[in-house]
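Researcher: For the annotation table, I need structure tokens for peptidylprolyl isomerase. Please keep the output clean. Sequence:
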Amino acid sequence: VAPGSRCLLLLLLLLLGVLGAPALGDPGPLEDVVIDRYYIPKICLREAQMGDFIRYHYNGTFKDGKKFDSSYDRGATVAGVVGVGRLITGMDRGLQGMCVNERRHLIVPPHLGYGSIGVAGLIPPDATLYFDVVMLDIWNKNDKLQITTLSKPERCNRTVENSDFVRYHYNGTLLDGTPFDSSYSKGSTYDTYVGTGWLIKGMDQGLLGMCAGEKRSIIIPPFLAYGEKGYGTVIPPQASLVFSVLLVDFHNPKDGVFLEHLEVPESCKRRAVTGDFVRYHYNGTLMDGTLFDSSYSRNQTYNTYIGKGYIIPGMDQGLQGVCVGEQRRVVIPPHLAYGENGAGKHKIPGSAVLIFDVHVIDFHNPADPVEIETVFRPEGCNVTTRDRDFVRYHYNCSLLDGTRLFSSHDYEKPQEVTLGANKVIEGLNSGLLDMCAGERRVLIVPPHLGHGESGARGVPGSAVLRFEVELISMEEGVPEGYLFIWHGEPPANLYEQMDLDKDGGIPADEFSTFIKTQVAEGKGRLMPSSDPEKVIADMFRNQDRNQDGKITPDELKLKSDEDQEKIHEEL
């Protein structure tokens, strides 16, 4: 434009202002919709585009504030497709680009509203319309499920597949954040099968591939949710749904017991089988890590037979083949545990998968003998221990997990005992037979040959015991019931020889002197004991039948004679 032309244009504009043309403060009739985005959410994942399905609320008023329509008054949102001519042009334009939860003021001029005709009885001709709109939902028929993993456990050995049974918690909201349901408020998980039509399609798909303990956000478009009908009063028609899901556990009805060997001893000579009695510690948890029971908290092992139906089937199976000292994880599906009903006493929900972390302390079979391992046997071992022999030995006693119980080394002298005299447990007695002096053995004693189900001071009930024994010395014993035996035939005139002063009575000192002489000359031997004087005193007391301090000819009797009379132990 030439300089002269610009001056002429400026003069014309001024004249128009003087003559009453619209000033800058009054723009006159609107040419397009006026949009005031007075609230924009911080997060806008999606904006409404031409062809999108939308749900929104609105109030419609005239310039003076008089209301002509409101979705709120009808108690229902408006749903439709934007930008395809199904709305008045001004609304079509004004809704495009909106985010969910965004709020706008729209001013729609008449030619973009109802024009010069209006709506009879509602909107006069050439009316400018004012709308206050909030966007609630946006989706498109081409939309897919939107899955966001919020957190995932480090260990994930298995993920959800179709036909699995799942237990999960969830919060359900509409796309604008309005809550409609929550499993947490009910205090229990939602339990169902996946991929069998029991869930809406979007949830069926959204749970696939999840790990136990995983958290997901699942956004489901209406056509994969409740569609045009909605659900009751809580889910409107054509509503997108947002689920925040925590998968608590899952299993398949075809699942068996899953075993994970956490620690297996290098030496495993024997594995548990059906009929064995097992003592083990355990922690029992749900798949989300919730502890429901622990033997450690009671400071006592759980003791039971396996394969006999005394415990849940999954544990019966899971303990098969364990070694002493093994640590094993046993994952048990509900149909091999407490089923649909759970176990309230132990805080186990219905249909819960159980995880037991087991530490096997020991096991045995009621038919087990003493297990004997010879660690060292001296050369030229010709004389071995027999029943009724008197032995001295050292020992260390422990549980099979290495827990130390007792040791003869804690005392000044070795342990002393007469074998077969019921002074030690049966298993130890058996393990000390046929030993040489200087021999060392390891004995594994099952509880039925040890301290039994009740245990003893410091020994748990039904515990298998391990003894390290070393035979220090042995003395040949005498038959049961005897305190002294002759190496040959006893003297024919026994009383006369025993009555040293020939006064017709044998006091204790004469008796003691006579017996000691027989032992010294190798003619007989006393029952082995750490206190020979006590043995001789017991012999005298047995012979002094009237307890008058001396033995008469009528009182003195040989043990062989007394066995027939069944009176009492004697010579």
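Researcher: And a one-line annotation?
Model: Residues 270 and 513 are 57 Å apart (CA to CA).
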